[in-house]
Each structure stands twice: as structure tokens, then as C-alpha cells.
Amino acid sequence: MILLQVHQLVRQFDADPVLDQVSFEIRPGEKIGLVGPNGAGKSTLLRIIAKLDQADQGTVELHPSARLAMLEQDPEFIAGRTLLDEAKAGLAPLYGLQAEAVEMAEKIASEPDPVLHERWQRRYDAVQLELGRLAAYNIDHRVDEVLAGLEFTRDQYDRPLDQLSGGQRNRAALARLLLAAPDLMLLDEPTNHLDIAATEWLENYLAQCAQAVLVVSHDRFFLDRVANRILELNAGGVHDYPGNFSAYWKQKDERHELLRRAYEKQQEFIARTEDFIRRNHYGQKHAQAADREKKLERLERVAPPRAISSPIMKFANVRRAGDWVIEAHGLTKGYGQPLFTDVNLQVLRGDRLALFGPNGCGKTTLLRTLLRELPPDAGEVRYGANVEIAYYDQQLAGVAADANLIEAIRPPGNPQLTPAHLRDILARFGLRGEIVLQTFGSLSGGEKSKVALARVAALDANVLVLDEPTNHLDLWACAALEQALCEFEGTLLFVSHDRYFIDRVATRIIAFEPGRWRLYDGNYSQYTDSLHRAAKERAIPAQSQTLLESRAKPPGANIPIAVRRKRKFPYRKVEDLEAEVAAAEARLADLQTELATPSVLRDGVRARETRLAYEETEARLAELYEHWEEALELN
Predict the structure, then answer these.
(1) How far apart are CA 295 and CA 304, in angstroms?
(2) In terms of DSSP bridges, do strands 337-348 and 352-356 run parallel, antiparallel, or are they unpaired?
């Protein structure tokens, strides 16, 4: 079955079409990543599929029985709606069925007319069957699961959307879409405004859901874990690649090389044929020349391969610093309550140190405190010998909006740098030609990020401090920046949510975890591996622990306080919980059988009471499962 068919789409805003004869198909359950350089038309394509924009030519055909919904980057909301209302709107049909079931049960209980009683009974039976088919007896639990996964707390449920931040409103729209579970989800940058924990939850949710997904994202880890197919949109055309992002990244170079060879081989054949025709047009081989000319006219030409160009970014060779670059002793900083306390850190020459953690945990504050832009509440920061620091601010506050790009990157107090030298630096970051005479304020987000990076490079500093440097950069610019930073001979400190970027660049990591910060040697993959190993070690009881020791020590006593998870439920024995789970499962099975019994269905009051008991038991069972898992881990 074909869920969606896109055929020969054309969309044109100026001389060159953004979409030029774009065609592809989507089947149920496929998880497709849509990638391409900035400005390639990815969002335009999604909007056309969602019928929010109209193509100049071509068709988009959705299967008649399928539902489609799109998550936009700037969604609109109904005034006065709360967070919980917004999430529940995704399940409006199911809540409607629940309300109808209650209404029918009440009518059955009070209707004296046997004809109407029979009508309400038939409708009630049909609604109950539909509720069972859609597993809609405990949908409030699904709402809680999604909102918790997107890092909303219960005290936020009743807050109006207009009192939430822009990022929170975007997450609310994502929650509504996930709960609606359309057959095809169109997601435009869904990981924007999500920290790493929420992004990983979304990855697991999308990878396991039955719905088809077409997603635009610059998050390469996300595309690796979710996508099983990649569509590359470039220069108006689309190319289809099987597999996840890493598979696509390998295949695209191989495909480009094959197309290049085919094109060059055909061009050589055309040149030889045209030379033969020119030399023999009037000679004895005139007939052969005429025949070859006809064949050449009928020849299907191979188009020249269109590679996505990426800037060759480079930071200059720098002066050697001392063995250590930055030292922090007892560093503490907070606003009302501490963001971090007693940070003792030594950054060595050549380190590439990544800071990452949840939004608002204090990463940028620590970075700015190390830069001495913010005074610490306690402790001190020292710099080593010959340290020269360049800072990339994610807000780009240090660049004047009305300056042309040449002047925008000129280092303060260094007027002797020639425009030609500054042009060379801009060119290293993909900014060439007339664009360097434009004002900084007129540029796109990706272009501004490249200017800010060029400004850092112009300082020739031996310590680079970068705050979210991959924001607004497309995949190819991110790859170029990664290469440049790995080749940089100085020292690097950076904040990033881009796990792929951290994995490629970092040699050490400062991770902000609940209630603490920790320093790890290695990249992101090595960090997550260490967490998984630690979790397994906590889950397996020590074989040498005697029964007497286990009784004498409180649960979890051998787990270091720094890594012990707090209990959500009171302590109970695992075997007691297993017995209660078994009883609840049996009770749930009995209630399910009772709900399907004709005598119960005919009795509206009894049916309603049975359904309520079923919902309560199902909710209790979900809680018991969670309690049992906690007991297995912490007892």
C-alpha cells in the first residue's frame, strides 16, 4: 500500500525553482529523514504535502483512508487553552467516544421506551467495541506519558499556553501531534527546544511507533536512530537513499562518484562522435557521419552530478600556550540557588572539552564564569601562560548589525588587517563574492553563524570558547566545522546539544547531571557507554554480599550517593509486588471478559461501573509495574 505519492512537484519563487520535478512515495510505517542544505526547500515541500502551500505543478495524493498532520516550526494555538487541553486535543476523538459511552449508558438506564432502549443499547455496544479496538480505556495515562517524556511537570498542566515560553509551546504542539498519532507525521525540526533527555525519549517513541514519519532535522544522532530511509533535497531535485543518516553519508559520495564517471565517460563519447562528424561531414564517410549525428540527437544525456558544496573551514596555526590553559578552584555560581558548586577543573593544552546537559542547568553560566565575564559566588579562575581566548556567543551579540561582513569580522584594535586578508578568512567559511559587502543584519541564521565563526578565526586565538556553534548550520557546514576543530592545534571549550558534533570533536566531557556535574574522559559515545555499564552494575547484586549484610544495610547502601536514584515508591519486597501484579492482571482479565458479556452491555449502570473498575485496575497495574521495576533496581 502506498500511503502518500508525490509526483513531479514544481515550486518556483524566482528564476531557479526550489522544487523541480520532485517525485517519491511513502509507505506505512516508514521513517524518512529529509535532508538538504539551508534554503533547499525542505520546509516548503512539507507545507505542500500538508496542503499549507500549493505547488505550481505536480500532484500530492494521500491514501483516502489515511490521516496526515504536520508539526510546524512556529505553530499557532487557540487562545486560553491550557497545556493539558492542548495535549488532550490530540485525542479528541477518543475522549468523544468515552463521553458518548457514558451518555449512552445513562440513556439506557433511564429510557422506558423499549425501541429507544434497544437503539441506545446497539450504539453503546458499538462504542464499547471501538473503545476496545483503540485501547482507549485509559488514555489519560498516555497523555501523562507523552507530557512527561517531553519534560513537562504536573504543575504545568493547568497553565495557559500564552504563559509558557516559545520552546514550551512548541513542545506542547509536538505532544498533541504524537497523541493524535496520524498515519503520516510531518515533523519540521522536532528536536528544536528539546534537551538531550527529551530528544532521546522522542527518538525511542518515533522508532517504536507504527506511524510513518517524514522528518526534517539537522540532528544527525536523531536521524541515525529514527530514520530507515533518507531523502536528499538539493538544487530542486530529490535523491533516495536506504538506511539511516550514517548509511546515507557513506552512500552519497559513492553515488556522486558513479554519476561523475558516467557523465565524464559520456562527455568523452560525445566529443569523439562530434569530432568524427565534423571531419567526415562531406567525405567518403558522409553516411556514417550522418548516422552518428542522428544517434547523437537521440542520445539521453547524463546530467552533470550536483554535489552539495560545503565550506572548507580552517582555523589558523596559533601560538603555543602553556601546559595548562585554565584552572578553576572551588567555583560556585547561582541565581537564588546554585547552578554548580565547588567546580575544580584543569583544562590542558590541546583539550577539546564539551559541556552538555539539560536546558537551564548552567552550562553557559559556567562557560562565562571561566571566561571571567561573570564573577563567581565562590572560588577562582586562573589562566595559564600565553593564553589568548576567542569567544563565540550563540546570541552573536558582539557583531554590529549594520556592519558589512569585512568589518564585522575585523578584530578590535587591529586596523592593519587588509580587506583582502579578511575576505580570505570569510572565504574559508563559505562566504565569497558580493555577500561580503552585505550588512550582517540582513543575513540568514546560517550565514550569521558562519560570520561569527570567521570573526573567531580572525582573532588567531589559541583557546576557542564556543557556545552552541552548530546552531543554524546545515549538515555540510557542521561536518566542515567538525573537521576544522579536530585539526585546530589549540584548545577548545564548547557547549552543544548536538550529540554527533560532541562525538566527533570532544576528547573530554563535563556532563551536568541531576544535582551534580561530572568530568569524563572521551567523547559522547564513550560517556553513554560508561553510564550504561554503571546502570548494569547497579542492577546486578554483588555475589559476595551475604544475607546478613543485606539485612543489616539499607537498600542501595553500596551504591555511591552521587549515582543512587531516589525512590519514587515506598520500600516493598519484590515477591510481594509480583503477587499483587499477578492479582491485578487476573482482575483486569476478568473485567475485560465482563465488559464483553451481553448481560453487562444491556445494563447501562452495571456497564459503566465495570468500565470504571477496568480503568482503575489498568491504572493500578501500570503503577505496580513501575514500582516492581524500581524494587528490582534498588532493593
Answers:
(1) 20
(2) unpaired
Contact between residue 216 and residue 46 where contact means Cβ atoms under 8 Å apart: yes
Give CA–CA dist 571/382, Å, rounded: 47
CB neighbours of residue 100 within 10 Å:
16
Separation CA 307–CA 441 (nearest Å): 29
- C-alpha–C-alpha distance, residues 246 and 428, integer Å: 26
Query: Which is more confidently placed, 538 or 621?
Result: 621
d(CA 363, CA 383): 19
Give the integer Cα–Cα distance in Å for 81 and 84.
8
Give the angle 425-458-36 at the CA atoms, nearest 5°. Answer: 50
Task: List beta partners, residue 22.
Answer: 9
Domain boundaries, the chain: 1-67+182-243, 80-173, 250-298, 309-388+474-540, 389-459, 574-634
Cell matching residue 233: 533535497
Cell of 464: 576557542
C-alpha to C-alpha distances, 117 to 103, 114, 121, 267, 607, nearest whole angstrom = 13, 5, 6, 81, 15
Element (H, E) at 523: none
- CA 128 from chain center: how many Å? 38
Q: Which helix (H) or strand (E) holds 465?
A: strand 463-467
The string of pLDDT tens digits covering residues 396-443 is 676 778 888 888 888 877 767 788 888 998 988 888 888 888 888 888
Contact indicator for 558, 545 with CB cutoff of 8 Å: yes
Spatial separation of the C-alpha atoms in residues 482 and 478, rounded to whole Å: 6
- Count CB-CB contacts under 10 A for residue 225: 19
Q: What angle do CA 168, 161, 393 make, to 5 degrees?
A: 35
pLDDT tens digits, 211-253: 999 999 989 999 999 999 999 998 888 999 999 999 998 888 8
Phi and psi, residue 335, nearest 5° = -130, 95
Contact 508, 354 (CB under 8 A): yes
What are the distances in angstroms from CA 344 to CA 83, 411, 493, 519? 41, 32, 16, 10
Q: Give the single-character DSSP code of 614.
A: H
Q: How far is residue 207's CA from residue 186's CA, in Å, rounded to a whole number?
A: 14
Judge whether 1-67+182-243 and 309-388+474-540 match in fold. yes
What's the CATH number of domain 1-67+182-243, 3.40.50.261, 3.20.20.70, 3.90.79.10, 3.40.50.300?
A: 3.40.50.300
Backbone angles phi, psi at 441, to 5 degrees: -65, -15
Nearest to 218 by CA among 5, 450, 404, 34: 34
Fold of 309-388+474-540: Rossmann fold (3.40.50)
Strands 378-383 and 57-62: unpaired
Contact 458, 409 (CB under 8 A): yes
Tell me the sheet residues that pair with 378.
Answer: 332
**Angstrom distance (rounded) from CA 436 to CA 16:** 23
Helices (H), ranges, 9-113: 42-49, 83-89, 92-110
CB contact at 8 A, 221 and 168: no
CA distance 423 to 405: 9
Q: Label residue 571 by pLDDT band (50, 70, 90).
A: low
